[in-house]
Design a protein that fits this description.
The structure holds two protein chains of two kinds.
Chain A (H helix, E strand, L loop, with lengths): L1 E5 L4 H12 L3 E6 L9 E4 L16 E4 L11 H17 L3 E5 L11 H15 L3 E5 L2 E2 L5 H12 L2 E6 L3 E2 L2 E2 H10 L9 E5 L5 E2 H12 L5 E6 H11 L1 H7 L1 H7 L8 H6 L7 H4 L6 H18 L5 H14 L9 H5 L19 H14 L6 H4 L8 H28 L14
Parallel strand pairs in A: 1-2, 1-4, 2-3, 4-5, 5-6, 6-11, 7-10, 8-13
Antiparallel strand pairs in A: 9-12
Helix pairs in contact in A: 1-5, 2-3, 4-6, 12-13, 12-15, 13-15
Chain B lengths: L4 E6 L3 H12 L4 E5 L13 H7 L4 H4 L5 H4 L14 H4 L2 H4 L2 E4 L36 H14 L10 H4 L13 H16 L6 E4 L33 H8 L5 E5 L2 E8 L2 E8 L2 E12 L3 H12 L5 E3 L4 E7 L17 E8 L5 E10 L16 H11 L3 E7 L5 E7 L5 E7 L3 H18 L3 E2 L5 E2 L35 E3 L14 H29 L1
Parallel strand pairs in B: 1-2, 1-8, 2-5, 3-15, 8-18
Antiparallel strand pairs in B: 4-11, 6-7, 7-8, 9-14, 10-13, 10-16, 10-17, 11-12, 12-13, 14-15
Helix pairs in contact in B: 1-10, 1-14, 7-14
The chains are: A alpha/beta, B alpha/beta.
């Protein structure tokens, strides 16, 4: 197929170009600045100068992603006219038109952004095109709103928890791209809106927490922020300033209508990956979490950083012998693995729900013991022998053990949450 | 129908090879079949401790590429976790359709059977212990001598266990004792002088491990690899005898044959075997069952079509750890990792009878720390700190009671599988408790402290000293065997492994199984030769 993609240098556009090329399509990448994908044919495209754009011959599909951004300020009227121009061009050359809209598109949307999207949608639908309304897009390279959230969460010492928290329906960028490209195989469609996002909404706060914990690998405290306060600030600082700081995006977030996505997802043959999977580099949350878990358990046992090969053995063992899922102890144990001593007490071994932890700890001991680098952790060297040295060694081990067991007994009262394992589920 | 062989022996373990020798030496046509599992990793030559310090890929033999040791994390014996030994136990229960309820059922489909991974403990039964055997005890003496000399036994020592083990006339000197156990033995020798009526005897263990080179095998070089596989071939395994047998032209060996049925009709008998997904029938004048107590019992019950349960024995066994404070801070040195010292004590039961218990002591340096941490009442992290220092001044031990004290029911189920159900007889807890107290006191006199909480009774069957399911009796009832191991109701099917022992004592029964198999093999050899002679004369 010959495909034109506008906004090809954007967050979604870039991934769409790459995947379309991988799928063997001829891709015309239209954007203001050239894109990195060299196999795509670059066409300069600027919303502000839409009249000068000429549609190449024999285009089968047009994906229209170009939109008003911070760096490319055009008025809503221009944005709508540019879209209408492209829709007309598509009708003339018999190309199918797919418009990437937004979850917030509606005539009475509180933001200009939402209203503009709705206006364009009407023109696309009237011309028999397809409208895609994605939920909160995340994952992949740190671009777009997702990229801004990632970097903000890295820099902020806390996670803003809006109260009441807005509900969002995230979709991983690769899942969205797959859904868009699945539109190429649709037959007999006309003027349809596809809503794509997780079936069950999640709170925006949980979304931010997940980015911080899984993607950024940082534990941060939540700072509750009343939603009305944000709205008030936006009102005070005015629209243009709000747009420049990105606060307007927050505003539209506060007012997201929930979408019923189930039917559309199955129509486009999409099975969305879990948020946890989507936020890891490899895209496999469980693997990623097992690596962290193995590192923590082995560090706890060895008292030093384990070699990569030991962690590999641990992960492969859990993946082939157990349920492949991480135990899900609190992130604090990954930060300070020595704290695992609180869970690893003789009393703790009998605790209900801890049997899998005990199994994995035993496995970690057995695996750690096979490390030639750490042989001195398990076998004494000649220098370490002698009655005095040995007696001191025994006394120290018993003392440390007693201290941690006392601490464990205290913690079970003051911080019982430490002893819980989060249930982790992974759809993929 | 003419028989293909004079004798088919089912199983290549200690019983099978022991019966095979007199038969092939008599010129009879013998076929031996087994399940065909064989060793996949060769034992390494380097000492255990240097391998541990230097081998960057030790996970391959400590954990195994298929995570063998982790898969068997809850198995009772550390042996079950050793990847190199996986083949010994592999596929046994599944292939033989053996299921168990509160009973550890283990067997082997390997060339050489369970002897590939045994503790090498050997002992001879006394005339009193042989009293319930349906033949004069002297009948077994020459067989004991034959098998003991063939295996190579060490541990001969003029000590308090010489009479108990009764093997010194055929045994070589003991393998070098390690510093800790040497210390204990020395303390014992002086302590017994001040305790004339001491109900505790300590001495060298008698083991089927070489202290001198012998026919191609080498003496123990203290590599510490006993648990992992002996490169020297110092440890006896029936697979060594199997290699010798293969050199006889009248001996046929087939591996990978799974016996489904043992059949007997008229003058001939035979086995139906599954091999490469087909079924084959092999006929012979006689079939000797040496498949190991559990599988032999199943095959015999199937042949007899007995659906009532038969009873079986196994020794209750406890494990414990001793700390020898005087040895604290000593450097670990290379050592033999199987039994170095053995001890006996008699415990009074509720009926005022003295029950004899036997145990052995082992050097810890060849055992991974991860085998101990789960039992230590400490956090793993600091438990490792403690054990790393403490283990070198510790020995581990086991303690066996007679097999009578485990009551096992073996029943053939409708699908032809064997179901095992086992529990300890009443009084075992008391006996073990009493044993623990006696041993704790006795060991204190030899400078060793029983580690608190370490004395643990294993699950029924964990000892693997199974036996006596088809016992030899003077007047055998159905499901029993006569003095030749011949099943009642069958002329030519003989049970020659642990299943045919009239009882299982606290002593390791391997040597007795082998001697009995040798005895039966000799009788059958004479009978068959006589029959062949008669036939030749007649023609």
């Amino acid at each position: 197929m010959r495909i034109l993609i506008t906004g090809a240098s954007g967050y979604i556009g870039e991934q769409l170009v790459l995947q379309a090329l991988t799928d063997g399509h001829v891709v015309f990448a239209a954007s203001r600045s050239p894109i990195a994908a060299v196999n795509a044919k670059y066409l300069p495209y600027d919303l502000g100068e839409y009249e000068s754009f000429r549609l190449p011959d024999n285009i089968d599909f047009i994906f229209h992603l170009a939109a008003n951004t911070k760096s490319n300020s055009v008025t809503p009227a221009v944005e709508i006219a540019a879209a209408a121009n492209l829709v007309n061009a598509s009708l003339r050359s018999n190309a199918k038109f797919i418009f990437i809209s937004s979850q917030v598109a509606r005539p009475d949307a509180p933001t200009e952004y939402g209203q503009t999207k709705w206006e364009i949608e009407q023109r696309v639908l009237a011309a028999g095109g397809i409208v895609i309304r994605p939920g909160q897009v995340y994952g992949g390279p740190e671009n777009g709103l997702y990229g801004r959230l990632c970097s903000s969460l890295r820099n902020l010492p806390f996670i803003p928890a809006f109260v009441p928290s807005p509900l969002i329906q995230p979709i991983h960028i690769q899942d969205l791209v797959k859904g868009l490209l699945n539109c190429l195989t649709l037959e007999n469609y006309s003027g349809q809106i596809f809503k794509l996002g997780s079936i069950d909404p999640i709170s925006f706060t949980f979304f931010l927490q997940s980015i911080a914990r899984i993607h950024n690998n940082k534990s941060r405290l939540l700072l509750p922020i009343p939603t009305f306060a944000v709205l008030a600030i936006i009102k005070i600082i005015g629209k243009s300033f709000a747009a420049r700081t990105g606060l307007d995006k927050l505003k539209s977030l506060m007012d997201v209508p929930l979408m019923d996505t189930k039917a559309d997802l199955s129509f486009l043959r999409l099975q969305l990956r879990s948020l946890q999977s989507g936020l890891t580099k490899s895209g496999r949350y469980n693997r990623h979490a097992l690596i962290i878990e193995g590192n923590s358990l082995l560090t706890y046992i060895l008292k030093s950083t384990p070699s990569v090969s030991l962690i590999k053995i641990y992960v492969r063992a859990i993946e082939s012998l157990r349920d492949k899922k991480p135990l899900g102890f609190l992130p604090i144990f990954n930060r300070w693995p020595i704290l695992l001593a609180l869970l690893d007490t003789p009393e703790g071994r009998k605790r209900t729900g801890h049997s899998e932890f005990i199994w994995r700890l035993r496995a970690a001991v057995a695996i750690a013991e096979t490390s030639a680098e750490d042989v001195e952790r398990f076998l004494e060297t000649p220098i370490q022998s002698g009655v005095l040295y040995s007696t001191l060694g025994l006394a120290r081990a018993l003392c440390m053990d007693t201290i941690w067991r006392l601490l464990s007994n205290v913690c079970i009262f003051i911080a019982p949450k430490l002893f819980d394992f989060e249930k982790t589920t992974d759809a993929c | 129908m003419p028989a293909d062989f004079d004798v088919i022996i089912v199983g290549s373990g200690p019983a099978g090879v022991s019966a095979a020798f007199p038969l092939v030496e008599a010129g009879l046509k013998v076929m031996m079949i087994d399940g065909g599992e064989s060793r996949k990793q060769n034992p390494f030559a380097e000492p255990y401790l240097s391998k541990r310090a230097l081998d960057p890929k030790q996970a391959e033999w400590m954990i195994g590429r298929d995570f063998h040791s982790l898969k068997n994390m809850n198995a009772q014996s550390p042996k079950m976790r050793i990847p190199a030994h996986g083949y010994v136990f592999n596929n046994f229960a599944h292939t033989n359709k053996i299921t168990s309820d509160s009973f550890v059922s283990i067997g082997s489909m390997a060339q050489g059977g369970l002897s590939n991974a045994w503790g090498c403990g050997v002992a001879r039964l006394s005339p009193q212990e042989l009293a319930d055997f349906p033949f004069p005890f002297s009948d077994l003496t020459s067989s004991y001598s034959t098998v003991a000399r063939r295996m190579g036994i060490s541990g001969a020592n003029q000590d308090d266990l010489s009479d108990y083990f009764g093997l010194d006339e055929w045994a070589d000197a003991p393998i070098k004792i390690d510093a800790i156990q040497g210390l204990m033995l020395k303390r014992y020798e002086s302590a017994r002088l001040s305790n004339p009526n001491w109900n505790f005897s300590l001495g060298r263990a008698r083991v089927a491990a070489l202290s001198q080179n012998r026919s191609g095998r080498h003496a123990c070089n203290l590599s510490g690899n006993c648990l992992w596989g002996c490169h020297q071939q110092s440890l006896y395994s029936a697979s060594i005898d199997l290699e010798t047998l293969k050199r006889f032209h009248n001996f046929t060996y087939r591996s990978g044959y799974i016996v489904e049925n043992v059949i007997e009709n008229g003058q001939s008998s035979g086995v139906q075997v599954a091999v490469n997904n087909t079924t084959e029938t092999i006929l012979a004048t006689k079939v000797l069952l040496a498949a190991g107590t559990l599988s032999t019992t199943r095959l015999a019950l199937r042949a007899l079509k007995i659906d009532q349960s038969v009873s079986m024995q196994a020794c209750p066994v406890a494990a414990f750890m001793l700390w020898i404070p005087r040895a604290l801070g000593q450097q670990s040195s290379p050592a033999f990792a199987l039994a170095q010292l053995a001890f006996t004590t008699r415990i009074l039961n509720n009926n005022n009878q003295h029950i004899s218990g036997l145990g052995s002591l082992f050097n810890c340096s060849g055992i991974p720390i991860s085998e101990f941490t789960p039992y230590l009442p400490m956090t793993s992290r600091y438990g490792i700190d403690l054990l790393k220092t403490l283990l070198r001044s510790c020995v581990v031990g086991n303690f066996y009671l007679p097999g009578y004290y485990t009551q096992i029911k073996a029943t053939l189920n409708s699908s032809g599988g064997l179901k095992l159900n086992g529990q300890f007889r009443e009084g075992v807890d008391d006996l073990m408790k009493q044993g623990r107290l006696q041993l704790s006191q006795a060991f204190r006199k030899v400078g060793a402290l029983l580690m608190p909480g370490s004395f643990k009774l294993g699950k029924p069957g964990a000892d693997l000293h199974y036996g006596s399911s088809l016992p030899m009796r003077a007047n055998p009832a159905p499901g029993e065997t006569n003095a030749k191991g011949s099943l009642v109701g069958m002329q030519n099917i003989h049970v020659i492994d642990g299943a045919s022992l009239p009882s299982v004592t606290e002593k390791s029964h391997t040597l007795t199984i082998m001697a009995n198999a040798d005895r039966i093999g000799k009788i059958i050899a004479l009978e068959l030769k006589a029959a062949l002679q008669t036939k030749a004369n007649y023609q």
